Amino acid sequence: MLKEVTVTRYITPLREGGSLPGLVEADDLGTYVMKFTGAGQGRKTLVAEVVCGELARRLGLRVPGLVTIDLDPVLGLGEPDQEVQGLLKASGGANLGMDFLSRAIGFDALAFPVSPEEAGRIVWFDALVGNVDRSWRNPNLLVWHGDLWLIDHGATMIWHHNWPGARTLAERPYDASDHALAPFGPDVAGAADALAPLVTEDLLAEVTAEIPEVWLAGEPGFGDPDELRRAYAEQLLARAAVIHERIEGIT
Question: Does the global pTM surpass 0.85?
Answer without folding.
Answer: yes
